[in-house]
Specification:
This is Superfamily II ATP-dependent DNA/RNA helicase. This protein is an alpha/beta fold. The chain is 33% helix and 19% strand.
């Protein structure tokens, strides 16, 4: 979606910065861009590359503080994610990092109050893309009582498709992964959270289908693409799971043209407002997309 714009800026000798609040998003963007553009691209985050001059830079949002009037175009992916969301310091860094006549492009599937106010004031312009590139509708979440989890889990495993399971808290996720592995010893199961030291390795193993069931917190709710997966959300009524978080989690399914469908299952002990709002919003997006 952004390739043509990046290519246009680079072909005229300009510089492009692509930033995101989430490390996992930056890593995936760097892999894609490095594959498809000929220039060397630094990846800047706390464990990333040392900076070297390049017309195209990928970085976490805090790395913007290192730059002043450096970019003709700055693209912020997942602008509504923590810690960028409504963070005045990072918004200042963003403005400071672009050239005086440079342009900003915000990317998100779930906007913020701050951005919505700017749109109403005509300070920024909204471009709305209700359809995915493959032309299929978004997968609508289905709600199930939590007690049905193992039944639905066994049904899903018979399909052979990889399964991404979201949990609301790290401690619960660690215990849940251990218990699931004990119940299903033949399955290749892993857990990943912000505290996981081997996080990058585990995520890559899931992408390569060396791990077929990945249990994770909200760190993988957005900006990452896995082929042909299904998504389960455990305790989907948990207050940590906001409407935007649930929309993003559901959005991990159906991203691949090889399998533009899939399962999005919310397991709960009682529906939350956020769950209902997320489902309603996804249905609205599909209507706007002509489905």
């Amino acid at each position: 979606m952004i390739y043509q714009l990046i290519e246009q800026i680079l072909s005229h000798g300009g510089s492009v910065g692509l930033a995101s609040p989430r490390i996992d998003v930056c890593i995936e963007l760097h892999q894609r861009l490095s594959r498809d553009f000929t220039c060397q691209i630094p990846l800047l985050y706390h464990e990333g590359d040392s900076y070297f001059r390049s017309p195209l830079v990928v970085m976490t949002s805090h790395q913007l503080l290192r730059f002043k009037e450096a970019f003709d175009l700055l693209i912020i992916d997942e602008v509504d994610a923590f810690p960028f969301r409504d963070n005045d310091m990072l918004y200042f860094a963003l403005e400071n990092a672009k050239k005086i006549n440079g342009n900003l492009l915000y990317l998100t599937a779930t906007s913020t109050d701050k951005l919505d106010k700017q749109i109403k004031k005509h300070e920024i312009k909204r471009l709305f893309l209700p359809r995915r590139f493959h032309g299929h509708p978004l997968v609508i979440p289905k709600f199930f009582w939590k007690k049905t989890f193992y039944k639905k889990f066994i049904e899903q495993r018979k399909t052979g498709f990889p399964l991404l399971i979201f949990v609301a808290e790290i401690d619960f996720g660690q215990d849940f992964a251990k218990n699931l592995q004990e119940k299903f010893p033949k399955e290749r199961i892993a857990f990943v959270a912000s505290t996981t030291k081997s996080r990058k390795t585990i995520v890559e193993a899931f992408r390569k289908k060396q791990v077929l069931i990945l249990i994770t917190t909200s760190i993988l709710e957005r900006g990452v693409t896995f082929s042909s997966i299904d998504v389960f959300v455990i305790n989907s009524e948990h207050p940590n799971f906001t409407k935007s978080a649930l929309i993003q989690m559901a959005g991990r399914v159906g991203r691949d043209s090889k399998r533009p469908t899939g399962l999005v299952s919310f397991f709960h002990s009682g529906k939350s407002l956020a769950m209902c709002q997320a489902q309603k919003e996804i249905k609205k997006m599909n209507r706007l997309g002509g489905f």
